[in-house]
Fold this protein.
Amino acid sequence: MAELLCSFNKDSLTIKPPKKASFVLRLMLSAFAMACGIYICSICLKQMNLQNKKKFLFFDDFERPCYDTVVDRSQIPYLHYPKPKTFNRLECAGNPVRLFAIVSMQRSGSGWFETLLNSHVNVSSNGEIFGPKSRRDNASSIIKTLDKVYNLDWFTSSSKNECSAAIGFKWMLNQGLMEHPKEIVEYFNDRGVNVIFLLRRNLLRRLVSMLANVYDKDAKLLNGVHVSHVHSDEEASLLSKYKPKLNITSLKSDLRGMESTALKALDYFNSTRHIIIYYEDLIKDPTQKLIEVEDFLKLPQMNLTSQQVKIHKGALSEHIDNFEEVNKTLSGTAYEKFLQADY
């Protein structure tokens, strides 16, 4: 009987699974289930955080400019997205704007050149904004004026407002530009302003045009009104009848002074992104020169036009009262070439 009991107990022990192995298996299953739960919870939390983040960043993403993948990355410093205080750019808010300044001297064709630029549907050039002395009393007043112009908050008849692709103005060398070159160059380079130098090679013709313009301010030859630019051959012929008498004593030093001023300006602003256009080249081949300017400003090419008409045409002998004296004074000098050259 005892043997049978022992035999039965042995069989019973061999049939039951080991308690230790069962405990380990349950522990492993529990750990696996816990790991799966943690993983699923982490995925859900990440998705919830991502959705919340998108909600918070939605407006920031809308405001942030998106660069076109075809844009040369080196041009990004010259792309701006102004936020005017005086109006909303609406659907054009994402369109980049390039900043420019036409740096020139009076009677160098800058008025004609600016009307050509403004005939482009995407360009707003606002004239001589630094004519009034109050805007150029010091570097601070200059910077304040520049900020207003480049933020599209400067309104003139040329302003195209929200959809302008290029915004700028004319700046004459005697309008504070040469008095504060360091601050202006720093501003231009920091803001990515494109500088267009428009200069005139024939300084003698420039001098004649200057003297004639000064005379007309008092004489008002055109219907009792002073005009610096005309729009018909008849008006040009009327204004060109006046022949200024040049000061022979100071003539060479006057020409030398104009030449020196232009060279200083080119030296001061050499570190800026710039292009040099000469009035004579623009007269000879306006289409090609304007294409160069459009490429410089990264503008789509258009047929640019102006209604302005040149005033002093033909030989200088027809426009200078004491031409024989001028001819004698300049013959044999570096300025002799100005006597015969047209434009």
User: Anything to note?
Assistant: The first strand starts at residue 98 and ends at 104. The radius of gyration is 38 Å. The CA atoms of residues 46 and 306 lie 61 Å apart.
